[in-house]
Design goal:
The protein has 317 residues and is of the alpha/beta class. The chain has helices at residues 33-37, 44-66, 85-102, 111-117, 161-171, 178-186, 210-225, 232-257, 273-286, 295-298, 303-314; strands at residues 2-7, 12-19, 23-31, 75-81, 106-110, 129-134, 139-146, 149-155, 262-266, 289-291. Helices cover 46% and strands 20% of the residues. The protein has a five-stranded mixed sheet, with helices on both faces. A five-stranded mixed sheet has the order 8-7-6-9-10, with helices on both faces. The chain is globular.
Length: 317
């Protein structure tokens, strides 16, 4: 089964040709990160215009690298939600045109499912499985009892974890995107500042990061008003320690409660070195299989959409 997958939910214009859910014939990503860095975050209108400029270029490159024509395709798959509506519509309209022109079935894929199935590009799934989805817009803990059988156990009540990283980075003025920068700084510092580890009670699988973010901001403002200097590496380490502790402890609790055989992390924040190391260590202690995507599949890409589409088709979802 050969699938042309399209991803344009935010600020990456991506297309991939994926065979049988795992064999990647091509995987092309045009990122707008340098453009949005000028604004300190993604500007939706700018993102949409950039998608329009690049989508046919990316399509041509994806087909060329895969050495196929549209007639060789079995399905067209595209991210349908969630995401920036203008960006999504560029990808969806492109997919509809290709599907119509070449008489191919069109599959609409949830972006979050795509991030989960980025892990399938690396390893088979063992069920039951717990997926921790962490990105700039989402923080969810998901139970999977089989392919495309999802149950959300908990989610963020306020800020997504990636959003919290970006906001903290903006406050201390270390640059954008904040996640990779703070992760690197955290490994150069020590967790010397006292910050809250917000777990919302022993029975909750939900998350909250606004209080932690506010604690960092208050710490920064108090130091500034007193003319004191904070060690930003130590602050990053303290912030990341609080985030990772909550994410790992809740994931481990869910894994034990639901007798998980496999734990994965998915989404842009799955590239976080501190989180990957802590989760791997914890799952090793529990003797539970742990996998995470290669770095190039952590951020938005179309190969993951092709992998998810494959199982969406097989399960008739």
């Amino acid at each position: 089964m050969i699938i042309l997958a399209i991803e344009s939910s935010c600020d990456e214009t991506a297309m991939a040709v994926v065979k049988d859910g795992r064999t990647i014939l091509s995987n092309v990503v045009y990122t707008q990160i340098d453009i949005h860095t000028l604004y300190g975050g993604v500007v939706p209108e700018v993102a949409s215009r950039e998608h329009i400029k690049k989508i046919t270029v990316v399509l041509d490159q994806a087909l060329k690298e895969a050495s196929i024509t549209p007639n060789d395709l079995d399905y067209i798959a595209v991210t349908s939600n969630p995401g920036l509506i203008g960006s999504l519509m560029v990808g969806i309209n492109c997919a509809k045109v290709i599907a119509c022109l070449y008489n191919k079935p069109l599959i609409m894929v949830n972006h979050i499912y795509g991030h989960i199935y980025a892990n399938y590009l690396e390893s088979d799934f063992l069920f039951p499985m717990i997926a921790l989805v962490v990105s700039g817009g989402h923080t969810e803990l998901v139970l999977m009892e089989d392919h495309f059988k999802f149950k959300v156990l908990g989610e963020t009540l306020d800020d997504a974890v990636g959003e919290a990283y970006d906001k903290v980075a903006r406050v201390v003025n270390v640059g954008y995107p904040g996640g990779p920068i703070l992760d690197k700084m955290a490994h150069e510092g020590i967790a010397s500042y006292e910050l809250p580890h917000i777990k919302l009670g022993k029975d909750s699988y939900d998350f909250s990061f606004s209080g932690l973010k506010s604690a960092v901001i208050n710490l920064y403002n108090k130091a500034t008003s007193k003319g004191e200097t904070l060690d930003y590496n130590n602050l990053a380490a303290s912030f990341q320690n609080a985030v990772v502790d909550v994410l790992v402890s809740k994931t481990a609790k869910a894994a034990l409660e639901f007798n998980a055989k496999h734990v994965i992390i998915a989404g842009g924040v799955s590239a976080n070195k501190g989180l990957r190391e802590a989760m791997e260590s914890k799952m090793n202690d529990l003797d539970i299989k742990f996998t995470c995507p290669k770095m190039k599949y952590c951020t938005d890409n179309a190969a993951m959409i092709g992998a998810a589409a494959y199982f969406q088709i097989l399960t008739n979802k």
